[in-house]
Amino acid sequence: MEKMWAGRFTKPSDQLADDFNSSLPFDCRMYRQDIQGSMAHAAMLGAQGIITKQDADTIIDGLDGILRDLDEGTLDFDPACEDIHMFVEQVLTQRIGDTGKRLHTARSRNDQVAVDLRMYLRDECNEIKDLIRKLIGAIIGQAAQHKETILPGYTHLQRAQPITFAHHLAAYGMMLARDLSRIEDAAKRMNRSPLGSCALAGTTYPIDRNATAEALGFDGPCLNSLDGVSDRDYCVELLSALSLIMTHLSRFSEEIILWSSWEFRFVELDDAYTTGSSIMPQKKNSDMAELVRGKTGRVYGDLMGMLTVLKGLPLAYNKDMQEDKECIFDAVDTAKKCLEIFTPMIATMRVNADRMYRAAQEGFINATDIADYLVRKGLPFRTAYKIVGQIVGHCIATNQVPDTMPLAEYQTFSDLFAEDLYEDIKLETCVKKRISQGAPGTIDQQLAYLQNLI
Ligand code: ARG
After folding, report:
1. How far lies 62's CA from each of 57, 115, 146, in Å?
2. Cα of 50 to ligand 1 centre, how many Å?
């Protein structure tokens, strides 16, 4: 097939070069956006008298037919075309003849690809938001059943203070709530139309950029044509938001893997979201969570790849920018799949409240509460802290837990201890009494906040 630009050249390009140059294998997924963009452009050219109304209608009809055929799978992508933009224009011209050649007036593939990608990613942002909401929903569902389920909260992976499982889950809910707003932010800045920036310097034709921006659902046109065709900040922003989503899912995965281990046995994943071993009959592995943790690296790599493509690129368009698509598509696909699998995995996870409670009983995690007891009786916190340190040492030496240590023994450390201590340091009391804002005792407010987002 003769190249569109053959006139300028004395010989055809090498097949290897054609293959190397082609983006059709991966940008074909933007065919819908490409055609919609072309329809809006043709309508604007007609309305502005740049082409005749009749030509505009013929083009739009032709494009509509191509869209339908691609949707229905009756039209195959031609691998000889360099990219989706060339392919659509080629089919259009084959179908409607010379009129098709008028479509590319006052336009370039540089603004075309920028429009397509923004529209494509805008739709993906909506899907990602839906998936985040669904996962928040699954978290709320589990949390609602475990508002009283006590487990140790950890710092340094050492048992620290008692919390509830609902509180722990809600922490992930909050991370995802921020992810949701980050995606919204990225989508907002993304939503400006580069169409009409043309190759780099706009055009001498009397185009109406507001009309095409509006027709395509953008908030308005980009204000500088060089920036319009060379800006990929929106890809970086989305990739960063996706990277953080993956960070959160990966941390969550790590805990699920840990909690599912025989050492913890805090939770058990449903059989549907685990795998066995080909050699060890006893194994039940958290493969989904491990894969999510592993795929996090891929998404970070996509972000780094995109940033590196942009670094040092002179204005305006350079072919390097074609490399934006595989990074961002991979990251979007990966993050979506991870969110998708996480939701039913969390929803069906069984919680072993007994194991959690026993772990909470064993780690002196009410030590802070014993100190707080002495503070309520008038001691300065530091003094109380020191006394409780000695009590913990004594408990370890005498192999007992503070909850059942006799009062007489307590009183050898301080005469402020009285019978009411035992009620105060019960795990249930420790959790319920923590009603400072954001503490386990405020779980209802936390869940209401999350519920509001979904
Ligand atoms: N396939 C190209 C890309 O994805 C489209 C823009 C090509 N523009 C150009 N001047 N070669 O970036």
Report:
1. 8, 20, 58
2. 24
Kindly report, residue by residue over 118-170, the tens digit of the pLDDT. 999 999 999 999 999 999 999 999 999 999 999 999 999 999 999 999 999 99
Beta bridge partners of 221: 193
Give the Cα separation of 73 and 405 in Å (integer).
75
pLDDT at 371 (0 to 100): 95
Distance CA 234, CA 328 (A): 10
Cα 436 to Cα 440: distance, rounded to the nearest angstrom: 8
Our answer to whether residue 277 is catalytic in this structure is: yes
Give the atom of ligand 1 at the shortest distance from the alpha carbon of 23: 1
Q: Does residue 112 have its Cβ closer than 6 Å to ligand 1?
A: no
Domains belonging to the chain, first-starting first, are 15-105 (1.10.275.10), 110-206+213-353 (1.20.200.10), 359-441 (1.10.40.30)
Protein residue with its CA nearest to atom 11 in ligand 1: 319
Give Cβ neighbours of residue 421 (< 8 Å, ≥ 6 apart): 370, 373, 407, 410
Beta strands 350-351 and 267-268, pairing class:
antiparallel
Across the range 428-447, mean pLDDT stands at 94
User: 267, 351 in Cβ contact below 8 A?
Assistant: yes
What single letter denotes the amino acid at residue 35?
I
